[in-house]
Amino acid sequence: MATQPWASGPREILEHGIALLRKDSDKNRRLALLSVDNAVELTIKTYLGLPKRINGIVVPRKDYVEFSESFPKLLDALEQYASLKIAGIDLGEIEWFHRLRNQLYHQGNGLTVDRDKVEVYSELAKLLFESLFETVLSFETEDQHQLLGEFLASWVAFERVIAEVSLQHIDKLSTLGGRTRPPMMAINELIKQGVFKPSDAKEIDDLRRLRNEIVHGIVDHKTAVNKPAIQRLQRITEKLRASLAAEGAKDV
To answer: Cβ contacts of residue 91 below 8 Å, gap of 6+?
Structure first.
């Protein structure tokens, strides 16, 4: 699918950041992190600034100017106006990587950044771009980087199914100030309520732990992510999707 003209800017910046990693060095990692972070910020600003006829939302100009000056406020606005579009993407993690970028930017070249962190952030940025602009990006990447992207994309699909499951059992869940709980907060309650079989609950917990350890840099994604792990995630997603369809058929 071709990239929409208004999305070409953030795409080019993101592509530049990923390309810098192909020749690994401390300098290139720093520059790559800065580029990826710039792409994330521009992606959000571009999407929220689009006409209503394109994105279906109305953002008051005064509000847009205000939240455009602050990255945390930009994330708040994205959560407010596009919560369904970003299902499965943890904005807290994106904010963490942005803070890491700020450390590099303000403290100069004395700091280095792990390649793994830049790779994870670039994949989160890619997922955010694809979710907001409904465009599949295809860059030249190394095999392990490709596996990381496939795993994180599969995780987004999984969380969206969990969101549907939680809606199906909304009467059993507590709320946060009247709002439904985010999928991965609801999942603990769904397990306690017996919505999942013990074996499924363990599978979900194992996969969630793996995903968090990868994104938070606790494990090296080059050794932690492989085809079997991706297939496990995809299998449990399909199983939940089939269960949803079966429940839906009962209601007809």
So the answer is: 75, 78, 79
Nearest CA-CA partner of 164 in 248, 81, 80, 252:
248
- Residue 55 burial (CB count, 10 A): 19
pTM over 0.85: no
Cβ contact 210:229 at 8 Å:
yes
In DSSP notation, the chain reads -PPPGGGHHHHHHHHHHHHHTTS--HHHHHHHHHHHHHHHHHHHHHHHTS-HHHHS----HHHHHHHTT-HHHHHHHHHHH-TTTTTT--HHHHHHHHHHHHHHHHHGGG----HHHHHHHHHHHHHHHHHHHT--------HHHHHHHHHHHHHHHHHHHHHHHHHHTGGGS-EETTEEPPHHHHHHHHHHTT-S-HHHHHHHHHHHHHHHHHHTTSS-HHHH--HHHHHHHHHHHHHHHHHHHHHHHHH-
Which residues have C-beta within 8 Å of that of residue 230, sequence separation ≥ 6? Answer: 147, 150, 151, 154
Task: Give Cα 104 to chain centroid, integer Å.
Answer: 22
Biggest distance spanned by C-alpha atoms of the chain: 63
Per-residue pLDDT tens for 116-167? 899 999 999 999 999 999 988 876 655 667 788 888 889 989 988 888 887 8
